From TrEMBL:
Pfam families: YibE_F (PF07907). This is Multitransmembrane protein. The keyword Membrane applies. Coiled coil: none annotated. PANTHER family: MEMBRANE PROTEIN, MEMBRANE PROTEIN-RELATED.
């Protein structure tokens, strides 16, 4: 029994214990999204436009994540509408930000691992970076949209401006911390490598790998910051 299978069983057991039937639905959503991500990679490798694939797969991922994460139709519908609006804006942000950053492709730190392999694989790495940037924001968008829609729904008549402001502050604060801790945790090995090789700070801040990863996180942070007020606006319009 390998580690992935064992941890998957542990996750399934905990989701069943904590969430019951809804926990099983969430686990199935995770499996479905995994298959969608694999399909996205296959389509991109097969020659389909990466950004177009990311948009289509992104819509499916949002639908699966949101509608399988809650049994409340009103909450799910509100979250999905808000997520679509945010995704439309994020597409423009990701395409423009990736094009301006010039961080697509591999950095010099990847040279040793790529030695002996050909990069002439017929794939536009800039479009791949745009697609990954868009797909990387979907989880944050769906999570924030569902959380806000559920909170506004629970507040009901008590959804005063002060209460809604408290919801915004809480969800944005926790989401941003989660994203940044995930970034620093996943990038800690490279940080140690930079430190051991005595990279100057200016060189780190201009390193292709570091800047590329940081921009990906900033895309998700901006997406969350947009999702919260937009979801509140949609919920109030649908009330």
């Amino acid at each position: 029994m390998n580690a992935i299978f064992l941890l998957g069983l542990v996750l399934l057991g905990l989701m069943l214990l904590v969430g019951g039937a809804q926990g099983i639905s969430n686990f199935l959503a995770l499996l479905a999204n995994t298959l969608l991500m694999i399909l996205a990679v296959i389509l991109m490798a097969g020659g389909f436009a990466p950004v177009g694939v990311a948009v289509v797969i992104g819509l499916l991922v949002l639908a699966v994540t949101i509608f399988m994460s809650t049994s409340h139709v009103q909450v799910a519908t509100t979250a999905f509408v808000a997520a679509l609006l945010v995704m439309a804006g994020v597409v423009v942000l990701v395409v423009g930000g990736t094009w301006l950053s010039h961080t697509a492709g591999f950095g010099p730190e990847d040279a040793e691992e790529l030695e002996g392999y050909s990069l002439a694989i017929g794939v536009n790495f800039e479009q791949i970076a745009m697609a990954s940037g868009l797909l990387g924001t979907l989880g944050a968008i769906a999570e924030a949209a569902c959380a806000v829609a559920a909170d506004v729904g629970e507040l009901g008549a008590a959804a005063t401006p002060a209460a809604l402001r408290a919801v915004q502050e809480t969800i944005i604060g926790t989401a941003l911390n989660t994203l940044f801790f995930g970034f620093f945790g996943g990038f800690s090995a490279l940080f140690i490598w930079f430190t051991q090789l005595h990279y100057p700070w200016l060189q780190v801040l201009n390193d292709q790998l570091f800047v590329g990863e940081l921009i990906q996180v900033l895309f998700a942070v901006i997406a969350v910051a947009l999702t919260v007020p937009i979801t509140i606006w949609v919920a109030k319009r649908r009330a």
